[in-house]
Amino acid sequence: MSRKHFVNIAWALRQEALRILDETTIESDARFDRQRQWDRDVIAMTNVCDGSNGNFDRGRFLVAAGYTHRPDGSMFPMAAPR
């Protein structure tokens, strides 16, 4: 895969994260389940992309897909439950 593919995949994952964050009509348990599934999907896609191209940058992809950095440098999904 190429950078163009990675950008498009990350964009799609981020859009889904934003959709989940904007959902106000579903119960909190269902929202939590959707957020956890989104997280698993992002990690799975990251692993596939990483295996397909030696120049793949996991951190850059995760940020583009909707993760953010904690002050300690670790990362967490922006769609994480509040």
Number of strands: 2
Order of helix and strand elements from N to C terminus = HHHEE
What's the alpha carbon Rg, rounded to whole Å?
13 Å
Shape designation: globular
- In total, how many domains does the architecture comprise? 1
User: Main β-sheet, in a few words?
Assistant: 2 strands, antiparallel
Number of contiguous helices: 3
- Terminal CA distance: 34 Å
User: What amount of the residues lies in strands?
Assistant: 5-15%
Annotation keywords:
82 residues, 3 helices, 7% strand
Notes on the structure:
By secondary structure, the protein is mainly α. It has one domain. 65% of the residues lie in helices and 7% in strands. The chain is built from three helices and two strands, in the order αααββ. The chain has a two-stranded antiparallel ribbon with strand order 1-2. β1 and β2 form a beta hairpin. α1 packs antiparallel against α2, α1 packs parallel to α3 and α2 packs antiparallel against α3. The longest helix is centred in the middle third of the chain and has 25 residues. The protein is globular, with a radius of gyration of 13 Å.
What's a concise summary of this model?
With 82 residues, this protein is mainly alpha-helical.
Write the layout of secondary structure elements.
Layout (H helix, E strand, L loop, with lengths): L2 H20 L5 H25 L5 H8 L1 E3 L5 E3 L5
Antiparallel strand pairs: 1-2
